[in-house]
Amino acid sequence: MNLQGVKVCSPRMQQGSGVFQSVRQRDRDRRRWCPDRPEYQLCSDHQWESRCPSGCRLQGLMEQTERQTGDRLRDICERTQRYEDVVTASMVTTKHIYNTNRKAIVKTHVFELKYVEFAKGLAWNLTSLRKRSAALLRKLNEQRSHVQKQIEDMYRQEVDIDIKLRSCQGSCNRSSAFRIDHDGYRSLHRQMTLFSNATEHQKNSPLKDIAKITLQPVDVGPPPSTDYKTIPIVQKELLTQFEDLEQNRVVLEEVLEETECLGSEGERGTGEAGVPECLIIN
């Protein structure tokens, strides 16, 4: 509220009580030269000279009405001044709260944007890493099959050698001591079984992609009114800058369907398993 915009109150606020004092002075002057008159009823035009009140009484009635109107107007102006003082104090408090919290709010807003960007890159890299791990697991299963076959071939050959050595002990001039390490082969067999069970369990577990974190705008109500933007302290202190900060909420959207890598082509490569290899963001 701008008190100077109330044209009726402006001269009275500038002149103080001088305007109202001048009305009282005129009333005292009127009593000195205007005699007291009895109350008269309304009269017609032909009764003007004999029954109508004198000019002094008419002037007194007008001044009385003016005085009453002035008292009411003064009360309105005083209340207007009190309201403006309250509004000014409220705007000063608003400015203090605004300046105190704006830095923290802007910092939080920037942090949210960076967090979502970081989470997006991390989801891409985690998805790539999981797919690369799955490819490496398939390769390990192939190697395990080869190792298992080699162990079986070695055990079979050692059994053949042991049989031949035993058969020639009576006819050979000299024989070498040979003993099959059955415990070692049983230990290898147990380890290969454990490894096979672990890989089968991981193979049967469904591989889910990482959910994507995004920001969605939130409707926080209508923007500030045009009248609010025209308040001098709002324009001076830039108390409408919060309109530049969009209100968001963090949500999980659709999962990633394809592996993507951040960075330039030089930062990308192909791993041993033949899948894209991305740098992990620290």
UniProtKB/TrEMBL annotation:
Coiled coil: 235-262
InterPro entries recorded: FIB_ANG-like, Fibrinogen_a/b/g_coil_dom
GO biological process: blood coagulation, common pathway; fibrinolysis; platelet aggregation; positive regulation of heterotypic cell-cell adhesion; protein polymerization
Gene3D superfamilies in alphabetical order: 1.20.5.50
UniProt entry keywords in alphabetical sequence: Blood coagulation, Coiled coil, Disulfide bond, Hemostasis, Secreted, Signal
Sequence ranges assigned to domain Fibrinogen alpha/beta/gamma chain coiled coil in this UniProt record: 29-180
Subcellular location(s) of the protein: Secreted
One Pfam match: Fib_alpha
Molecular functions per Gene Ontology: extracellular matrix structural constituent; protein-macromolecule adaptor activity; signaling receptor binding
UniProt key word Oxidoreductase: no
Cellular component, GO annotation: fibrinogen complex
Record note on quaternary structure: Heterohexamer; disulfide linked. Contains 2 sets of 3 non-identical chains (alpha, beta and gamma). The 2 heterotrimers are in head to head conformation with the N-termini in a small central domain.
PANTHER family: FIBRINOGEN ALPHA CHAIN
Entry protein name: Fibrinogen alpha/beta/gamma chain coiled coil domain-containing protein
Record lineage: Eukaryota, Metazoa, Chordata, Craniata, Vertebrata
